[in-house]
Amino acid sequence: MHSAVIDVEPETVFAEGGATASAHPEGLVPAEVERIVPALVETLLENREELLSVLTRVATRQAAVDEFFRSLRALSGAPWELLRNSPGKLGRLATFLPSNNLLYSYVLFGVIPSLYTDEVRLRPSARVAPAAMAVHDIIGPRVRAAVGGRFEMAPVSQREFLDACAHSDAVVFTGQPDNAGTVAARIPHDALFLGFGSGPNPLVVGPEADLDTACRSVLAARLYNSGQDCLCTDIVFVHRSVARELTTRLADALSAVRVGDRREADTLVAPLVYPDAVEGAAEFLAGHQEFVVRGGRADLARNIVEPSLLTLPWRPGFHPPEFFSPVVLTMEYDDPRRIEQWLRSPEETERGMYVQVFGEPGLRGPRIGTSVVCDGRVTFDVEDGNRPFGGYGLRAGHVRRGGAVTARPLLLSAEAGRRARS
Asked: Is the domain of 147 the same as that of 263?
């Protein structure tokens, strides 16, 4: 989940007034949740093609279909999530939605919280506001009818939405981590602030890895929605004993990747939605041409980054950018202790999220530094909308309340439950 907070002129505004009075101050009772959730699931199913048509404005068809089913799964898991976390009742929630995962983030940060919140206010990213509003137009009326509270989305300016945050019990922020402090400073002292960020999510291919599995995993972890997701892998560490063979496999696989219209089912890479991602990839590729094995070109006019493979020698001080594009970057290593040291460096401690490990017995444990270990799985395998998301790096995700800032995996209902019990 990734979004920049950008000022836009308001097209519509939120209604005036505070949160509505709740008929259930402790939240909806389980019987009500069990009644409401199936109706909302049915809404998604009934409007599947219309929703997919909207989602493919910013996502490949493959990613949009996956997002649709992940949204169904998260919504279906909401009754268990609420029973598990007992979030109590929030008065008002203000959410800065990301610029991707339009339906999934709408469900996670809007629909599910509406089951225990009197008033939900959503601000779409300026980059994708028309598409986000289209999702809201399809689902929003059914949510309002089901939960009986206020459930609103409007593409208002950042300044106006900050005013809404100042009167909220909880704020979800999915923008740039550098802007999180500014937003958090505007909310009440006892309010919850959840800042969702991103990390490089390195993938390690060790000497014992099955290379067929490793190759498929690298492509799955890097090319999801043309690479436009905060869970995508920005660097692949490859043991030197398997580096040559894996490089050949990756180059061959990337040469077969279809680049085309994002609405077509067999397209894996499409024109990028974010011009700055194209520019960033073009600049990186131009500055590292001597390491390009396959691809290496970007078309700024068409917003296309060619599926590219670069191989770097070991550089302990190298910390990859967030590419947000189909750039596969590998780096050889010979000792897993070097990777562990890299993960514990100040730069990676700050943005530690996940580390995906395939066939490297020297990297074990639930986490290394601030990065959660995914053993034999990629980030998209472990992501679950009803469970905490992310790692322990401050820029990857943190919660603020009462002056305290804690970096940890985040789930709104879990944080609301902690607040209710404190």
From this structure: no
Domain match, 228 and 371 both? yes
pLDDT exceeds cutoff 90 at 281: yes
**For residue 164, what pLDDT band results from cuts at 50, 70 and 90?**
confident
Contact 40, 140 (CB under 8 A): no
112, part of any domain: yes
Residues 6 or more apart in contact with residue 115 via CB below 8 angstroms: 27, 28, 33, 36, 37, 78, 82, 147
Question: Nearest 10 degrees: CA dihedral of 235, 1, 227, 290?
Answer: -40
- pTM for the model: 0.92
Q: Tell me if 2 is assigned to some domain.
A: no
Q: How far apart are CA 386 and CA 414, in angstroms?
A: 10
On whether both 217 and 289 belong to a single domain, the answer is: yes
What's the one-letter identity of residue 195?
G
| Domain-located, residue 8 | no
Domain that holds residue 307: 203-382
Interval 302-330 mean pLDDT: 98
* Co-location of 233 and 333 in the same domain: yes
Task: Compute the 3-state secondary structure of the chain and give helix, strand, coil in percent, each to the nearest 5.
Answer: 40, 20, 40
CB 200 within 8 Å of CB 351:
yes
CATH number where 290 lies: 3.40.309.10
DSSP string, 128-163: GHHHHHHHHHHHHHHHHHHH-SEEEE----HHHHHH
Nearest-CA neighbor of 191 among 162, 158, 165?
A: 165
Split at pLDDT 50, 70, 90, the class of 101 is very high
- With a cut of 70, say whether residue 226 has pLDDT above it: yes
Residues 192 and 210 in one domain: no
**Overall domain count for the chain:** 2
Tell me: do 250 and 309 sit in the same domain: yes
| CB count in 10 Å sphere of residue 383 | 17
Predicted pLDDT at 27: 58
Is residue 421 scored above 70 in pLDDT? yes
C-alpha closest to that of 273 among 58, 34, 422, 27 = 58
CA separation for the pair 380, 378 (Å, rounded): 5
* 241 within domain boundaries: yes
Do residue 140 and residue 63 come from a single domain?
Answer: yes
Residue found by looking up tokens 């995962």 in the block: 101
Percent of the chain with pLDDT over 70: 93
